[in-house]
Design goal:
heterodimer; A: about 100 residues; mainly alpha; about 65% helix; B: about 220 residues; 6 helices
């Protein structure tokens, strides 16, 4: 059997632990911030932290950092279509007047 | 059933690396479609959150953040053990692979158990539209019981769909652990572990976004 070239370098376990610690810290951060009086900023702060956590999971746990470019394309295609879905839907609903229940 | 150290290259691939990359790409394409499934529900949620913000904030404050937060840590830890199991598969460490896969599945079950406790608590707190809900409790200014019920329906739909995905993941991880015990995987053949690891991380990703969108809408003053 010929020697197999691994598709990606084997990441060290310590990298995974470091990412995990960062994720836990971000979780504690997002929960803690929710007890502060941020008023309208809660949404954007929460989403920014969630996006940071998601990026860490995708890049390191899901090996996206060492994946082929076409894999990146598949992910960004999904996100792009999600962006179309949300933006076009919201332009419709946010430009209507609302009846009160 | 693959034989030990199987590394069969299917004829339509140029190399094993090509095959491995295509397998991974296939799972990523599926995950992109899953993004759109949850994305559609998120879009509906966004529309009504913008329209009924005070009601959504008031309802969000009643959710059990203690269990929600613990569940987040549980899922993050399960993602860690899943990543470690993929690494173990790549380096041929069978015992570690079985152990990490088993831990991943166990933590998934723990998440579901905590979720069940949380759902029961929601039922006791009268937060289940149609089953256990008291409009009289929602009397703050700008808060309407029907809008609160809409939030709760989104909450159960999103967490319920997530729980279904998690259950499927747990079953598959358990099957992979059983296969690993039977020495099916090796540094030459670990594609199933890799791609179902991707699925598991995706389920974790959904929950990472569910936590702030459902539990942390407004300023919280209590954990339960």
């Amino acid at each position: 059997m010929s020697k197999i070239k691994t598709t990606e370098q084997i990441a060290s376990a310590s990298l995974y632990y470091a990412v995990y610690i960062a994720l836990v810290i971000l979780t504690i951060g997002t929960v803690g911030l929710s007890f502060c009086n941020l008023q309208n900023w809660h949404t954007i702060v929460g989403l920014i932290i969630a996006t940071c956590k998601a990026t860490l999971v995708a890049l390191f746990f899901m090996h996206l950092l060492h994946s082929a470019r076409i894999t990146w394309l598949a992910l960004f295609a999904g996100l792009f279509w999600l962006a179309i879905l949300m933006s076009l839907t919201l332009t419709d609903y946010l430009s209507r007047s609302w009846l009160q229940y | 059933m693959a034989t030990r150290n199987a590394s069969v290259r299917w004829h339509h691939f140029d190399s094993l690396q090509h095959q491995q990359e295509s397998t991974t790409l296939g799972m990523w394409v599926f995950l992109a479609t899953e993004v759109l499934v949850f994305g559609a529900i998120f879009t509906g949620y966004t529309v009504y959150r913008v329209a009924y913000t005070p009601s959504f904030e008031a309802a969000s404050r009643q959710l059990n953040l203690l269990i929600g937060g613990i569940n987040t840590i549980v899922l993050l830890t399960s993602s860690l053990t899943m990543a470690l199991s993929v690494q173990a598969a790549k380096s041929g460490q069978r015992r570690k692979l079985v152990r990490c896969l088993g831990l991943t599945a166990l933590m998934g079950i723990a998440f579901l158990g905590l979720k069940a406790v949380e759902y029961y608590g929601d039922y006791r707190d009268k937060l289940v539209p149609g089953l256990s809900f008291d409009p009289v409790q929602w009397t703050a200014p700008d808060v309407h019981p029907s809008q609160v019920q809409l939030f709760l329906i989104f909450y159960y739909c999103l967490t319920g769909l997530h729980a279904v995905h998690l259950t499927i993941g747990i079953v598959i991880i358990a099957i992979l652990a059983w296969m690993a015990r039977r020495n099916v995987f090796s540094p030459h053949y670990y594609a199933p572990v890799e791609i179902w690891g991707l699925y598991w991380h995706f389920v974790d990703l959904i929950w990472i976004f569910l936590l702030p969108l459902l539990y942390l809408i407004g300023t919280r003053d209590r954990w339960l």
